[in-house]
C-alpha cells in the first residue's frame, strides 16, 4: 500500500495540499458563476434590451443593430457557460 511508505508528515502535507486545492476550486467556481450571472444581467438589461427597444421604435441604424447583436451574443455565451457550470 503506498500510504505505508509515507511518513505521517508526508501524509499530512499531501492531505493538506489536496484539501486546499479542493477548497480553492470550489470558491473559484462560485466566484466565476456569480461573475457570469452579473455579466449576463448587465448585458441583458444595459445593452441588449435598450438596443432592442430602439429597434422596436423604428431607429434602425447599423450601430444599434450591432449593439443589440453584441449584447445578445454576450447573454448567449454567458448563459451557456452558466448552464455548463450548473450541470
From TrEMBL:
<keyword id="KW-1133">Transmembrane helix</keyword>
<feature type="transmembrane region" description="Helical">
    <location>
        <begin position="30"/>
        <end position="51"/>
    </location>
</feature>
<protein>
    <recommendedName>
        <fullName>Cox cluster protein</fullName>
    </recommendedName>
</protein>
<keyword id="KW-0472">Membrane</keyword>
<keyword id="KW-0812">Transmembrane</keyword>
<feature type="transmembrane region" description="Helical">
    <location>
        <begin position="63"/>
        <end position="83"/>
    </location>
</feature>
